[in-house]
Specification:
The protein is of the alpha/beta class and 267 residues long. It has one domain (12-266): Vaccinia Virus protein VP39 (Rossmann fold), CATH 3.40.50. It has helices spanning 51-62, 67-80, 96-104, 117-124, 159-165, 183-189, 223-232, 241-248; strands spanning 12-14, 17-19, 25-27, 34-35, 86-90, 109-114, 131-134, 147-153, 166-177, 207-222, 252-266. The strands form two sheets. The chain has an eight-stranded mixed beta sheet, with helices on both faces. A three-stranded antiparallel beta sheet has the order 1-2-3, with no helix packed on it. It is globular, with a radius of gyration of 19 Å. Bound molecules: S-adenosylmethionine (SAM). The site of S-adenosylmethionine has 20 residues, from α3.
């Protein structure tokens, strides 16, 4: 199912490497993942989330705080997928959702992909049954019209590219942050929090919307879990050092989790 990110020809396994017919070669790393992100597709030296964000996310998600999100996505895939052949989780991070969802709704082939090499390295110790790949969502290294289900969980949707890679009737399950997502944490961070009603992007020229709703729940988080939550979000990079320390000292905080969930089906 994988294709060469340079010439787009099919990749075949030989020894510990994948080769295309033009002899571009990609070696499996010792951890078991494959790097299909050529330098010309990188916009920085280490694109994607940092090691610190990833390990905070691993600690946080491993405690099951976002189980309702994972369960909802699994249930939607079960309901709306047409086939159980190929599942691709894009922007898979440290692999929590890829592994949990593929356990709940088995597919023949599962690919987890992220632009951050450190993320994909971490994924390898979650499961050896998944093909973990470093790649960009804008140039997915999979055959056209080969994928039954794509998930984008707090990640990006490159609608044209996903359209090309999905089979007809294939689905995208998209989870994005709602307007009240982590609102209490934002109030602690920013002097003013603007509550703009963000509208969902319109992809109706490519996809029909099969399902659209919100998931919302409350968490009462204690110090260490709050610190992890803070460290796994992009907000962490916008806080001054002294304020960061004050926030790390918070003993507990009630937090709202609010996500928009959509199922889009390829026309
Ligand atoms: C907020 S995190 C979400 C990770 C995971 N889905 C989760 O919810 O735990 C977004 C992820 O998208 C990845 N990412 C950012 N830009 C990307 C791109 N162009 N292609 C693939 N992954 C990308 C980041 O490295 C990061 O791991």
């Amino acid at each position: 199912m994988l294709i060469c990110p340079i010439c787009k020809n099919e990749l075949k396994k030989r020894g510990n490497s994948l080769f295309c017919s033009k002899n571009h070669c990609f070696d499996f790393a010792k951890q078991g993942y494959i790097n299909l992100l050529p330098v010309q597709q990188k916009k920085s030296l280490n694109p994607g989330d940092s090691k610190e964000m990833l390990s905070a996310r691993r600690s946080f998600l491993s405690k099951g705080f976002y189980t309702p999100i994972k369960d909802k996505v699994a249930c939607l895939i079960e309901t709306y997928r047409q086939d159980n052949e190929n599942f691709l989780d894009i922007g898979c991070g440290e692999g929590y959702y890829t592994v949990e969802i593929s356990r709940a709704v088995p597919f023949k082939n599962v690919i987890g992909t992220d632009i951050a090499k450190d993320a994909v390295k971490m994924c390898c110790n979650r499961s050896k049954d998944i093909m973990w790949t470093v790649a960009t969502a804008s140039h997915l290294p999979v055959k056209d019209q080969s994928i039954d289900c794509i998930t984008s969980i707090f990640s990006l949707v490159v609608a044209d590219e996903y359209y090309i890679k999905l089979k007809k009737g294939g689905i995208i399950v998209e989870v994005s942050a709602g307007n009240n997502h982590l609102i209490e944490l934002k109030r602690e961070i920013y002097q003013q929090v603007y509550k703009q009603e963000k509208s969902q992007r319109d992809y109706s020229h490519l996809f029909t919307t099969e399902y659209e709703d919100k998931i919302s729940f409350q968490l009462l988080l204690e110090n260490e879990d709050l610190k992890n939550l803070l460290d796994m979000t992009p907000h962490i990079n916008r806080i001054k050092k002294d304020r960061k320390q004050q926030l790390y000292n918070l003993q507990s905080l009630a937090i709202t989790v609010e996500c928009n969930v959509r199922v889009l089906k390829k026309r």
